[in-house]
Queue: 2 jobs
Job 1
Amino acid sequence: MSESEGIDARPYRAVVTGAAGFIGSHLVEALLELGHEVVGIDAFTSSYPPALKRSNIAAASAHPCFDLLPADLNELDLVEVLRPDDVIFHLGGQPGVRASWGKDFVDYTRANIDATQRVLEAARARQAARIVFASSSSVYGDAPLPMREDGPLHPVSPYGVTKLTAELLGLVYWKAFGLPVVPLRFFSVYGPRQRPDMAFNRFIDAIAQGKPIVVFGDGSQRRDFTYVGDVVAALLAAAAHGRPGEPINVGGGSTVTLAQSIAIIERRIGRKALIEQNPAPPGDARDTQAATDRLHALGAMPRVRIEDGLAQQVAWQLRSMPGQVSRGVVAGAPPTQRARSGSAPRILLYSHDTYGLGHLRRNTAIAHGLVQRSPELEVTLLTGSPMAEQWPFPDGVSIVRLPPVVKVGAEEYQPVQARSMSAVRAERAGIIASTLLRVRPDVFLVDHAPLGMKGELGLALKMAREELPDTRVVLGLRDVLDEPDVVRATWSAQGVYQILETAYDQIIVYGSRELFDAASEYGIPDSVARRVQFSGYLAKDRGLEQSIDGRETWAQARRAGDRRVLVMGGGGGDAAPMLLAAIQAWDSLRYLLHGEAVIVVGPLMAPADRAEVERMGSQVAGVQVIRSSTTMLSLVAAADLIVSMGGYNSVVEAVAARKPLVICPRTAPRREQLMRAEIMARLGLAQVARLDGDGDVAGRIADAMVAALKAGPPPAHAWRSIDLRGTERVTDLLLEMTAPVSVQVAA
Ligand code: NAD
């Protein structure tokens, strides 16, 4: 691509490092808004609470054109992530002047220098169209004002030194290899989502809470403050037509003293600051002011005045401090108040988890969505899964474990520990009820079983009604449970209809009414049907995985035409026959299909079954058998074909990744998987290979694999016919239920 060619005129693939940070998250949203495809990379480092970063990027995460890789630039194989002609916005780094002195300097060299060198190397290897790099006004130190890009560079902090080094590295790659690097020098950025260590954020927080603020120096130091929206505009303009190798200042909007900016905040909040003065620490430049000729030539001069920009930041910050808002400190704004004043909203999720991993996986996805969206929420998850010890729960979620019980037949259960079933059931019922009373949640979400395992929820549901009038009790149902007549008979026999009527405020079906109307098929009476909502399918967020190392499970060397086939049997409890048949199918196709098949046995497979799958896998070329993976979504993302049982999560993950898919559904003891598989086949999203019935199962799977590969990924119209935004909608619904009661406070 030539330098003069505008690259914003057509959609491009943008790779944003530091995507979950303050500036990065705004940039991601702007790129998506403009119709670009975006890959975000962020290590969620602990420079400030990762929960805040998750919340920054939560809204963008739901966008279908956004992929978030939670990975460290110093570890990630970037060459695999990048594609030729990508536009890279390299914002990942360790910011902050004061903390760069002392022992933590290594964090700065790693994040700002080592990581930048890796980005440049990968960009060179993959021939990136452009790299826009976030440098800083700190490269100037105490330079004469206004600070000119071609003027002296004498950083006065270790942070400034790392930023200058990174800039110079970029310059070296431009000169040596023609890699088009455009460095932007940001001047004190502010606005919504500003980092909690930055001055305005600390000032607003303290003034709103009536606490003293610490001002370094006498407050007369001048800063060139730049609104984050203006910084994003400059980043986009630099990607379009910035001149490689030429740094550009991004500042010049509002040069004011610190004291003036504090006065603006005081006016917005309607409260005077209590000021404590401390001597200016080393590393802070006395004044900053950007020369703006280059920014002007780029057509990206700042537009937002400091009064308006600070109004945005104050409003955002007070919104995320419910306690403050209820005290009515925002002049002119109608404040609200939570029903229980001062407390964070609380959500309790329960799943009995006596068979498979489906319930736990769904609740984990919902819990993750909740803490991402709203980090101040208190989310507690009750689970009875035998896998709970090893399960990768999302950060910020409290876990309460129930003694595990496994299902051994229709309505027959057995404790995992050597204890009587009645003792374990009583203990579980007690833990659930006492957790409910301790947490006193705004919302209690029950997965799938309205009465819990063998009625264990009875006590808790009764207490919710008697003791917790403010708690909304919600039932989350899978898209499909079983054949309608079977469900109707079971529900009648167990008294479920009555419980739905009396104990549940709301029912959410994790599917689409157009595809299967669970409310009418299962005979939910009209009085309850009014409380039923369909959320769409719950597709998981890649942020649930710690890294994208899953890609490394696949053999690295790949010849043209090689295929990656992923075979998954969900939790694995009854998956052995399907996996064995799939290995046979792969073997029978060896003259047609080359590459690699990864077979995931699932953590719940019996050891003897697992040994058999491993034995058979070892005899067939190109087969790799693994027990489980903590990076399933990444494995799915890198596969060319997926062969799976028909469980909710596996199917939704494969469909969400828009992969050719063969579903081999279980048909007993329930028809649920078969019904789901048939729905997906009807939509053109999957081939079905039945495991039951006469004849050659492996042959059926092989035929379906060939058909699925031939058909390729589902066409856009078919893929769009399924609603995969369930996690977002369920999160919205639950958050709405915790929403504050609006109370007008006299201004
Ligand atoms: P931020 O801390 O909010 O964002 C940086 C993000 O980078 C964080 O989310 C962090 O987790 C991520 N990160 C750090 N090391 C990483 C690694 N090795 N791999 C992947 N991700 C990593 O900071 P910000 O204020 O949004 O700043 C963004 C960039 O702009 C930084 O490079 C900063 O130095 C630069 N900058 C910011 C300002 C400002 O006023 N905010 C001024 C000048 C320059």
Job 2
Amino acid sequence: MQTDPTISPDLDCWVEGANGHPDWPVQNLPLGVFSSADGLPRIGTAIGDYVLDLDALAQGELIADEDVREALQQPMLNALFALGAEAMKGLRARLSQLLTDSDYRAAIGQHLIAMDEVEMELPALVGDYTDFYVGIHHATNVGKLFRPDNPLLPNYKHIPIGYHGRASSVRVSGHPVVRPSGQKRPSEEGAAPTRSPSARLDYELEMGIWVGEGNALGDPIPIEEAENHIAGYCLLNDWSARDLQAWEYQPLGPFLAKSFLTTVSPWVVTPQALAPYMKPMPPRPEGDPQPIDYLAGGPDKAALGIALEVLLSTEKMRRAGDAPHRLSEGEAAAAMYWSAAQIVTHHASNGCNLQPGDLIGTGTLSTAEESGYGSLLELSEGGKKPISLPNGETRTFLEDGDEVTLRARAVAEGQPGISLGECTGRVLPARG
Ligand code: CA
């Protein structure tokens, strides 16, 4: 039953080219931060081939809620996120109304800027970044490389595994990926470790969750309320140096192998926009434990019906004018053993306070099939099986000049389909 009018497939938007737009129809209305010729970052929404300047809109009388008006005039989304789910739903409803009632065309048309004339910025100031590991096929594939007979550790099906990442090195799509250098495992026992540029640089296909309203320190978030603390979703690439990771990760987990850069797509696609595409979580296989009470229950449709793909473009391909090569495609819902709601609830379950603009990664989202593997580590079986590209090049890990693009679309029967945009990065040579 569809009760939210902002997701109706029948909406008619007066912005030229917006109706039936493959990425940004009026049913999407993602939030982001952009800058145009004058260079000042401000909040906007994507509509068709345009960005609507919400800062400019908020300076007029068309947004009634004073708190929302004030938050929209900030250069980042944190203040808007802090207002919570009801305020954000109210803003969405109003934007939908303004963009579908042609009476507003004269007042608002002047605040539309062609999307190809703006630069997208990081949507929020990231106070904390946490990366989970809920992609069960990824965890199994990686586990198999180390423990062929027992790939999943005993905790995996009881507890959403995560670690604290580095917030200062989160960047928006397009930021270059400088190849990190670091210590590597000695080639033989008793030998000294070496330090050099990573030779096993990899990407990880993930979804990002932007935290909306936070929780007070000491107060857990019940699973029934978890979705109200999610401002929206994006794509996330957890760039990883596998050779650095292998030497440093025991006993405390990843550190310099991951903290050199994390890239996110610029638009925050809200839970309201994604509601028509959500699915029930895949049933747990027979014999798997049921979630412990605090992680049980929650939304009926907690799985993300989002189609994901990874594209690679090498320098040689670009020189020849070749299209990027698709390395994999899959669906987030098929990859995640724990839902976004379970991730948020678990994160706050010890009383840890989440804050507006915190970023949470799901972990690499691989499907069960090789065609849906979300990292080169898996596609090349730990570097043992080179991947052949259409132009005759091969890859086990990323080379300088390689450009990786993550893409995501939400698709469902009877719905127009909406995009989550792209998350891109090109590898530059090491600097030391
Ligand atoms: Ca990761």
